[in-house]
Amino acid sequence: MDVPLHEQIAADLRRRISSGELPVGAAVPSESQLCTQWNASRGPVRQALTALRAEGMIGGGRGKPPVVRRQALSQPFETFLSFSRWVHGLGRTPGQRTLEVARRPATAELADELDLDEGDPVVQVLRLRFIDETPTMIERTTFVEPVGRLLYDYDCDSGSIYAYLGEQGVDMSNARHLMDAVAADATDSELLGIDVGSPLLRERRRATGLDGRPVEYSDDRYRPDLVSFAIENSQRAQPAFARNWRSAS
Amino acid sequence: MDVPLHEQIAADLRRRISSGELPVGAAVPSESQLCTQWNASRGPVRQALTALRAEGMIGGGRGKPPVVRRQALSQPFETFLSFSRWVHGLGRTPGQRTLEVARRPATAELADELDLDEGDPVVQVLRLRFIDETPTMIERTTFVEPVGRLLYDYDCDSGSIYAYLGEQGVDMSNARHLMDAVAADATDSELLGIDVGSPLLRERRRATGLDGRPVEYSDDRYRPDLVSFAIENSQRAQPAFARNWRSAS
């Protein structure tokens, strides 16, 4: 066996946490349970738990049994791009209501983001996104015209635009996400059922193909009491990040 | 020479952008300028520019000269942890005003984050941070007591707490950053000179040592018109992220 036992134990625990078998807040199996399960001594079990603790996946006070802190250290690229796929991965039900699919001339700002000239046609989609029927996010997405025109034949209320565009052969291999905060405007307020001026977590996303050509630019606004973004970094390992959800209280 | 010419050209441009020699918004040297500088043909120059475009470091419309979009694709771990070091890297002047250094019993929430028991002593620092004398961020940082007590002998107005703690041998090898948005409270409002309720970009950070033991937990609130966080990901490469700054308008 090439993989040391402590790494096998750690990998199995990561899998159980990522799958939701061990949800956030759940007690991590005790050392003696893990020793029995793996027919292992305390050494590798403690090594595995130390690794997960260092990754921030589990935590807990001194002398208290450790609990799960986070769903996943890192989420696959597609999950981070697609709201629908992310919510499915949480074991929840994604939903969407399309307010608008419009062909418009690009503004100067959008032209700059999409490497177009001002006035070039773009296709814009405004959708309200749900998790388990709770309005959670508003997406204002602009596609370059050759991609956006594919949406004229698609029911944007039916599910994931990204899955559909992927099936159509659209290449969105790279994405840049800019996180900041904005005050809810009248549209945000009405659709999310919050006060005008309430703080929203904004993700501005620019997706490009392998060749670096922009495909879409989006302004997504999340209710910050429901969604946050996590970044993990260390002096040793590659950074990882995840979109986190907590259910409405 | 092991490194292909187009990679050398790309690396040099990245260095010039990261150092601020080519700031955000600046025109990228033209193809013919780069050909002359490198005594190269158009091929490798175009390859280098395509790579930077794919990384999102440069952009611009068709037929328009490309401009610099971002300062850096990824920032070193220390830069992401330390506000002072990050601001120095921007070629700007970091500043701080310490409002409070206090020893307190840990609340239940802090005890959970720091793997302590409720009521265990912690050391809390409240500082207003500046970039070029503009109030930009408020940090509310809580240290475990053995680390925090080192600050009793340190002037928190004098510079980077992280640099100081590092010199004292404190190990902060890992960090998790949770990004969301909050409304400015009375303290935020007064210190940052903004309205109560204004949206702020919040970073909650938990730093741990190599052994996974928590060292600090911080609630940092940024003016979102000045600072954003960027995440880059792709199907091919490791994710990268950066803290971005734009000067007050």
TrEMBL record, chains A, B:
Keywords: DNA-binding, Transcription, Transcription regulation. It comes from the Bacteria. InterPro entries: Bact_HTH_transcr_reg, Chorismate_lyase_/UTRA_dom_sf, Tscrpt_reg_HTH_GntR, UTRA, WH-like_DNA-bd_sf, WH_DNA-bd_sf. Residues 3-71 form the HTH gntR-type domain. One of its GO terms (molecular function) is DNA-binding transcription factor activity. Gene3D superfamilies: Chorismate lyase-like, Winged helix-like DNA-binding domain superfamily/Winged helix DNA-binding domain. One of its GO terms (biological process) is negative regulation of DNA-templated transcription. Pfam families: GntR, UTRA. This is GntR family transcriptional regulator. It comes from Prauserella flavalba.
